[in-house]
Amino acid sequence: MNLKASLIVLLALLFALDSQAQMTKIRGVVKNALTEEPIPFANVYFEGTTVGATTDFSGKFSIESMHATDTLTATYVGFYKQKILIKKYRYQEVLILLSPEEFALEEVVVVAGENPADILFRKMVANKERNNSSDVGAWQAEVYNKIQFDANNFDEKFKNRPVFKHFQFIFDYVDTSAVNGKAYLPMFITEAVSEVFYRKEPRARIEKITAARGSGVENPSIAQFMGNLYQDVNVYDNYISLFGKNFISPTANFGLNYYRYFLVDSAVIDGQWCYKLMYKPRRKQELTFNGYIWLHDTSFAVKQVEMIAAEDANLNFINDLTIRQQYELVNNRQWMLSRDYMMADFNVIENTRRLPGFFGQRTTTYRNYILNQPADAQIYRSPVGVIVSEGSLNFSDNYWDSVRPERLTARESRIYSMIDSIERVPIYKTYVDVIYMVTHGYAPTGWFEIGPIGKMYGYNEIEGHRFRFGGRTSTRFSRNLRLNGFLAYGISDRKPKFGGGLLYVLDKSPLRSTGFNFRTDSEQLGASQQAVVNDNFLSLLVRRQPSDKLNYVNEYKVFYEHEWFNGLSNKLEFTHREIKPAGTFIPQTRLENGELIGHQSIVTSELSYSLRFAFRERSIIRDFDRISFGTKYPELNVRYSYSGKGILESDWEYHRLEGGLTHRFNVGPLGWSKYSLEAGHVWGKLPFPLLMLPPGNETFVFDQSAYNLMNYYEFVNDSYVSLYYTHHFDGFFFNRLPLFRKLKWREVVFVKGIAGELSDQNKAFNALPDITYMLNKPYFEAGAGIENIFKIVRVDGIWRLSHRDHANINNFAFFVSLQFSF
């Protein structure tokens, strides 16, 4: 073969390979040619193939395939078949008009009877138990997982913005979605090949990643969305939890109360005869889906399912949410998931094409199932749910081409080179730094990050105007060691404040870390960990009371944290503290002869041991941060502390034990609830700052960890029991009111109380301030609020239900807070 012929053959082969990896995307609508009314349930497919779709209730459809032909065919009973020519390997929108056939109908007698779709639905529900793969005793499979994020909403006006002056080359990679017609730019992709081992009793699910690769823009906010995308969806569950919301499954036992079902087709799929049911919600704005279900004709198992979140569902920041699953019959006995696809279209403003957003897509395929043969018991004893094999990042392109069940599209395969080109543009680093500062609160300057930005200025009555400069090392310095420090100064008290420390991560899976911190600073005793602190510039704007009860604190702390497995960890901590009054608020105690002693300094040396247990919690560790995706079970926290007199000049000896149980759970279509039950006790004769001060709140910002209408130092006790219960209706009532429905507001209620007592020895020992009381009867407050105002604002009205005669309090007040929720 001569050189010219060889070149032609080579070019032909390259073109053939490239064309196999190109996608044809069709988005369109089928209408009646005479009336122009949409035709639902029409069949649309590529001529000569089995690749197609059925139009939805609005006559719309979308198809994408690497195996398209140049002819698209549409059919529907009572209409002539219509064929149109399309162009392969590109996105296009089409309108297909079907002409009605003209024929005479003989007399038809209609007899009332049950909808055949409802009959099939009931048979599917009756056979759930034997078709549900979660009831299999054990299984293992080879799994391929791909997660991709794409920036979308790119029009010519957007492309010409000055910010993209140096990045025009990236628009050569823009593609178009067949689902909603939005242009998008692939930005981030990860692939993984793994083995998954599942055992029902005792329950365990272990994933061993054998190969992984990734490229693209990555940050914690995207990691959060990725975690939400990477969640198991069992179609047979009555409720499907997505993005913290409880969607009603189209296969729910009570599905007929929420959906209308239609029998629209029957066909052979993978050699098995199946019926196609399409469904739509009965009511507006409920957390429901539109889509279809293919049911096997004899086992009535789900063969394929599509679930598209209802357009008017009360869901924030998501324009489209689609789930598609396929199942296969393994060993002619059990239906198992073979393909799982999920796509979400995120945007700050729903249904806009003007503001940039992004798609998140996850595709998972399962193959080579082994059923009811448990793996070696040692595999299930792994302390982590995901094991990354050594060398998993070192596989070649040829390997990935051989293991992918579906080829990457041409644009997907070019993401890696595109990202390399972006990172070489000098201004790219500036943009990344700005995004990092907004999401983290720190301004990166290489190996050092300045911040937190929000704490650089503050004001309170003790320090006056307060200025603070601080920072920490970045992952460019080390991915295992982080150093931090700050300097602060108050104009009024003229006292310098400073602090610093280090954190060293010994292992990340499971997490093992150790660290040391010290600080000389001001502190508000009796404030919750989530309170708007005094060194934050916002605190000046939202206070209800003057911030005049501060203390100065000198503190040294060393700790070691050990995670045994996902959800179970212990922490050992030693803290040496010296508390000094910052103003005239000086604690006083009595000697046996009744003489009062004012304490200008209270010194303790405390050793503490804590336990945290969150059963089957899912979380990821990113360098120094843990991102938790929660658990369906209650979370337990227990902490025991001991301070010995004379240890490092400690003045006081005591034992302290506290524990709490927190649980968030769904309540079907009524929304979700959360409760926190806590209890504690201190053994020892102590000045009141070392006893238990229920957390108060002297701002107008709602704090779920505090008693919002309780002042700082208002109560003191050495034993207590507290309960917090809240319920979020997620618009259950407002969605049914026409005037409120479009606002998408959501209702929330809560009640919070604490009962406690002060022992006789501590009553006699302390001369309590005039503003401090004992809990001779429980303290209660309750609130009702509206959340999701402008999607991020929550407003609560809170009533104080007891101890209403104290001085300088509010028995009712409005509180405002910001929250991000889907």
Quick tags:
disordered N terminus, 822 residues, 13 helices, mainly beta, 12-stranded mixed β-sheet, 18-stranded antiparallel β-sheet, single chain
Concise description?
The protein has an 18-stranded antiparallel beta sheet that branches. Strands 8, 9, 10, 11, 14, 15, 16, 17, 18, 19, 20 and 21 form a 12-stranded mixed beta sheet that branches.
Textual characterization of the structure:
The structure is a single chain. The chain has 822 residues and is mainly beta. 12% of the residues lie in helices and 45% in strands. The protein contains 13 helices and 44 strands. It has an 18-stranded antiparallel sheet that branches. Strands 8, 9, 10, 11, 14, 15, 16, 17, 18, 19, 20 and 21 form a 12-stranded mixed sheet that branches. A 4-stranded antiparallel sheet has the order 3-2-5-6, with no helix packed on it.
